[in-house]
Design a protein that fits this description.
Helix content is 35%, strand content 16%. The chain is built from eleven helices and eight strands. α8 crosses α9 and α9 runs parallel beside α10. The longest helix is centred in the first third of the chain and has 20 residues. It is globular and about 50 Å long.
Amino acid sequence: MTDSTQPPQNPSVCIVGAPMDLGQSRRGVDMGPSALRYAGLQRRLTALGCRVKDCGNVEVPVRDTLPRAGGMAFLPAVVEACEAIYQKGIEAIANGDIPLFLGGDHSTAIGTVGAASHDRRTGVLWIDAHGDFNTPDTSPSGNIHGMPLAALTGHGIPEMVDLGHPGPKVLAQDVMLIGIRDLDTEERDSLRASGAGVYTMREIDDRGIGPVAREAVKRLEHLPRVHVSLDLDALDPREAPGVGTPVSGGLTYREAHLLMEIIAESIAVGSIDIVEVNPILDHSNRTAELAIELLLSLLGKTII
């Protein structure tokens, strides 16, 4: 696949880096934005026909200056960073751009999805091995990157739920999770009761990624804006080894591309985040390269 195919409307993309690794215990995802840029992100988006501006990185507190306990002790710093992400996203959308957020761990989504839904009802395609639907009361680890989707739908502590503006940012019924295969016990029960659409790898194996993707998109196509949150651990570790929390049995290379292509041909994506790329654990920046290939498909690149 080459980068020559033009997307239908030459979108304007504002790249926003969110170099944060405060939401989990494993270090390295703070270097994700650099890895993605190093892999030729801006050049390849421009070749696709996008109008691209790199809006820089938000400032994130240095982890080594924070309490060594980690976990919820990092909450004030995570909130500070997500507030900055939120404001950057609002500015990009007001300027008519598609904000493209480069994580960082998935706790950044408290800010990215919050910004996307700031002025209108927004659907979310949450592509991930994990549900990220824990709260501080249910999380076995206390890692904040396992809590953003719960907070975005109104569950958890006020510091997270009310970030940006008070209350939930999205309705659970407007969230479709794809690629799920690793849930904590209480998280699973909460997710079942939430009303969100959950497409596990079991269902993808049984039905195929095409029918699953088309059904998920169909359930969101009536909404004025859709945000795509792509956690690279949705893919099998053999495809994407450089991720913070790998789980075997994920999407294949081709399944992931087909998913992106179906999204692109079905709905207009208003905002995107790419998270959990960990170059410390990667092989020759392979995971960042894959992330960019998937992004190009999501923005309209086709084989013919």
